Amino acid sequence: MSGGNTTFEPGQLVSHPGRPDWGLGQVQSVVGSRVTVNFHHAGKVLVNTAVIALMIEDDSRAPS
Prior knowledge:
By secondary structure, the protein is mainly β. It has one domain. It has strands spanning 13-15, 25-31, 34-39, 43-48, 55-57. Strands 4-3-2-1-5 form a five-stranded antiparallel β-sheet, with no helix packed on it. Strand 2 (25-31) and strand 3 form a beta hairpin.
């Protein structure tokens, strides 16, 4: 799904593989390997994608 070479874009839905309790997140901004994600249960989190491989999710998982 994703890896160190994945390009993230604002608006994409992602999840953190090590923190499923955070729920679904939406990418807010991307600066190099630093991706700011607004997670449903954790709020805004800065993720270094060189260290953590965020999983790109499809829109069907989005809460309605």
